[in-house]
Design goal:
The protein has ten helices and nine strands. The radius of gyration is 23 Å and the shape is elongated.
């Protein structure tokens, strides 16, 4: 698989430049995708943001250099990009549990954070129900609240957003719907590269429209995404939905001709009856064909 080969070549580049400047533009070029897509893919596949991975690899390798060479701690700190030995020592101790001076003097055990490589795992299981949809620019109009990411179960903070609406609000919003995707939507806008439990994101409950609205009453998000990969899920809520979300990034995207682009991810639910064992949802992921 060419994508897998390119991804591992990108990891080799990072490893070869741990004590130099790591050019993220070059990393994504080697991986054969945009920086945005690479960062998102890496986070889902590795379970941590690329920045955290690089930081841990640098600190792990620096401990080995302290033990095996006579490099000065201040020189090592500057080589790793820290502004001062104190900043380096603090980060070092957080990972290893000891200061650089203590490890060099006492030769205690260090935390080994090994280089990462990816391999393809063939999984048996269900096909993914996916289609590609094209849309025109539109606005998401509704209510927005900053919430915290929750991987499993129903997120009570999302429920709180629905409680912000009056019955007549939904009646009005439905009169605005004049473009795809239709229906009441949950839109997630991530504020960084982390997808760890508890990460903050902006969550909208809204409808898609091209009509003008009173922005003093409604939260409005402009969306200029042209293509979406739409995944239909049918099963118990929210387990089936969350399982599909994971498979999108670990199975479908690595083997498809598409990569993610900047924009909100959308969720449409067919009904409010989440107890239905055949609960139907759609996940809309902004994508573009790989160059």
């Amino acid at each position: 698989m060419n994508e897998l080969k390119q991804l591992n070549e990108a990891m080799d580049y990072i490893e070869a430049n741990l004590f130099a400047v790591i050019d993220m533009k070059k990393v994504s070029l080697i991986a054969g995708c945009s920086q945005y897509h690479f960062k998102r893919m890496f986070t889902f596949l590795a379970g941590m943001p690329i920045g955290e991975y690089i930081r841990k690899r640098k600190l792990s390798s620096s401990a080995e250099r302290l033990i095996k060479t006579d490099i000065k701690i201040i020189d090592l700190a500057l080589e790793l990009g820290y502004n001062s030995p104190d900043a380096f020592s603090k980060a070092f101790q957080q990972l290893h549990g000891f200061s650089p001076q203590h490890i060099r003097k006492e030769k205690v055990s260090i935390v080994s954070f090994s280089p990462l490589s990816f391999q393809l795992t063939i999984k048996g299981g269900k096909d993914m129900n996916v289609r590609i949809e094209q849309t025109i620019p539109f606005n998401l109009v509704g209510k927005m609240k900053k919430i915290h990411l929750q991987h499993l179960g129903v997120n009570p903070e999302v429920t709180e957003i629905f409680e912000m609406f009056k019955a007549e609000d939904f009646v009005y919003l439905k009169t605005l719907m004049n473009t795809k995707p239709s229906g009441i939507l949950c839109a997630s806008v991530y504020l960084g590269d982390s997808y760890d439990e508890g990460t903050e994101l902006n969550q909208y409950v809204a409808v898609a429209t091209t009509m003008n609205v009173d922005r003093t009453k409604w939260d409005v998000l402009s969306v200029n995404v042209k293509s979406w990969a739409v995944f239909t899920t049918i099963g118990d809520f929210p387990h089936t939905l969350q399982n599909t979300w994971s498979r999108i990034y670990t199975e479908w995207l690595p083997s498809s001709n598409y990569e993610t682009v900047e924009g909100p991810t959308l969720l449409w639910n067919e009904s409010a009856n989440t107890s239905d064992v055949n609960f139907k949802s759609e996940i809309w992921v902004p994508v573009v064909l790989k160059q």
